């Protein structure tokens, strides 16, 4: 198979970055509205409800979102009973995740939402399934290489919350209830569109009407399910660790310092994560493409992208850091001024994110997600140790320093791993397979 044209790849990455920037704009506008109507405490609760249900959901689907692009590559997507197997995993995970949230809701309310009704926190469990439905639909589009559809869903995922949050406010529902309703409605609306695009990409016959295990519905294949779960769980570890590295500081800070301080830190974190968008876009675009190439071609393409991805983020970090103060004060008001310094610290932690995004795409595309997970696990250890050490005495700034150390460490290790493996891919093929099988 021939390698993708460089110009076409660049356009695809830029398109995905644009979609993610629109999503970030939607998130920013929503956060501003939440901040203006409820203050820093409401922003903290919003951040927790965006993170915790999704975390439980991805834990319960055996790594399905991370496995989809691999199993939906052109030479794998017509495996017998593939779709019934994938759907069975998704529905079972959504049911289990919702049940776990309901069972744990008294503890969740006590730790993270001490001033809210436990029944309201229990109701937020519905977003476990809605977030999962959206996430699986979005990653299915990635695997099917519907780049336009995937970009639309990425942007809509955040933009949809704003009108869905305004709707309960208009009818007189405020506070945390309005946030929960807005999140659930936005998930459902965008998920329906995502799955509509998936079915059109496959052909409308796939909307549950095809026989012989080729439609969405039918009897799942147990052995295929084990194969999907084996790949997915190895990647799931890395995906979960990435999520924890990005959000564990939020959870620990929220539990220790409370929603008000967390609200300011959540704003700082989202601002700094602007610099992670290109790396995420590179992973999104390159993962399914590299899965179609042979090992030498994949290594060549990935190595070629390292330098421009690295230099681009370093250059972009300078104005992002300098503009932190005026932008955060303008958007969120004077009460969010303490978020400026943590934002600048977090910006420093993002400078390697572009190159590490290429590295993660290479490892996933070559069928070795466990190696990615091992490296990210090192970063998680750094995050936990530094969070519990620094947050009690330094609050939000301690959380920022902990996350920055974890980001830089894991990103640097991923880049080194890419350079070493791709420079001697044939010689290491057997060793990588053995290592991956034991991870």
UniProtKB/TrEMBL annotation:
According to UniProt, the name of this protein is: O-antigen/teichoic acid export membrane protein
Q: Which domain of life is it from?
A: Bacteria
Q: What is its subcellular localisation? A: Cell membrane
Which InterPro entries does this UniProt record tie to the protein?
Answer: Poly_Biosynth_Transport, Polysacc_synth
Membrane topology type: Multi-pass membrane protein
Provide the transmembrane region boundaries: 21-39, 51-73, 85-113, 176-195, 310-332, 344-364, 371-391, 397-419
Q: Which UniProt keywords are given for this protein, alphabetically ordered? A: Cell membrane, Membrane, Transmembrane, Transmembrane helix
